[in-house]
Specification:
Elements: E1 8-15, H1 18-29, E2 32-33, E3 44-49, E4 52-59, H2 62-66, E5 72-78, H3 82-91, E6 95-103, E7 107-113, E8 119-125, E9 143-150, H4 153-164, E10 167-173, E11 179-184, E12 194-198, E13 206-212, H5 216-225, E14 229-236, E15 242-247, E16 253-258
Parallel strand pairs: 1-4, 5-8, 9-12, 13-16
Antiparallel strand pairs: 1-5, 2-3, 3-4, 6-7, 7-8, 9-13, 10-11, 11-12, 14-15, 15-16
Organism: Sphingomonas rustica
Domain VOC: 7-125, 142-259
Pfam families: Glyoxalase (PF00903)
């Protein structure tokens, strides 16, 4: 894939109840998640945005749960060579949760964690030139912002730059909390795709993803009506957009972002 290395190319919800997840996220974000998984193999369902795929939903089975898997949103970072990327992550102090393996028709991938223990996937897609559109900075029903909260933001910035070319392109001071460091990758050509920040006392360490919705007030109402929780917001952020910090009915953290004219 062109300009794949260091780009977020996919997003995945791990859930103990795919049917309930579909009902919740379809209503909150406007997706159409597959009602059933294809026959055979694991229970994996596609997330359909209005203009294409936005990610996938994987139903956790009993063995996965017994092995410690929990509901969570995870991101996939594209790489040129999965095996080399995994070896490099391990050499830099990261962990390997799932060694490289092939998914027929999709590509090669592995699950790793950075030196602070934050999990993510690395993947090489199988179709040359078919760039992913799962991340779209201004695309409704897509991830619009990738935010890492971590116990050591300086170490994280150094790690992701060395491994994936994800670089700091500015910062917003947050007083005693430190900096909110904006990040970009080769595909974004200098435009921020997200940020890295120190974990706050009430924060959620990990890669957190903000999905774009057309109107923040309606999205908040849907979250609350369908068994989710609003942790913070709506808040208007620099630039005028509105954000909302939420958890779904399984307690999985996610964010929402809406245009500045959507009100609160």
């Amino acid at each position: 894939m062109g300009k794949q290395h260091g780009s977020f190319i996919w997003y995945e919800l791990l859930t103990a109840d795919a049917k309930a997840a579909k009902a919740f996220y379809d209503a909150v974000i406007g997706w159409t998640i597959d009602a059933e998984a294809p026959p055979g193999g694991m229970d994996y369902r596609m997330i359909h945005a209005r203009d294409g795929h936005a990610g996938g939903v994987m139903q956790l089975n009993a063995d996965m749960i017994a092995g410690g898997a929990k509901p969570v949103w995870l991101g996939y970072i594209g790489v040129d060579d999965v095996d080399a990327a995994v070896a490099s992550v391990a050499a830099a102090g990261g962990q390997v949760h799932l060694p490289p393996f092939d998914v027929p028709g999709a590509g090669r991938l592995a699950m790793v964690a950075d030196p602070q223990g934050i999990p993510f996937y690395v993947m090489r897609g199988s179709t040359e030139g078919a760039d992913s559109t799962a991340y779209q900075r201004h695309g409704t029903q897509h991830v619009s912002w990738n935010e890492l909260t971590t116990p050591d933001d300086a170490a994280a910035l150094a790690f992701y730059e060395a491994q994936f070319g994800i670089t700091k392109v500015g910062a917003m001071p947050m007083g005693a909390m430190g900096d909110y460091s904006f990040i970009a990758n080769i595909e974004s050509e200098g435009e921020a795709i997200g940020a890295i920040m120190p974990t706050t006392p009430n924060g959620h360490p990990g890669w957190n993803f903000y999905f774009r919705v057309p109107e923040i007030t309606a999205a908040k109402a849907a979250v609350q009506a369908l068994g989710g929780a609003v942790l913070m917001g709506p808040d208007q952020v620099p630039g005028g957009e509105w954000t909302l910090h939420c958890t779904d009915p399984e307690g999985v953290f996610f964010g929402l972002v809406a245009p500045k004219n959507s009100g609160a």
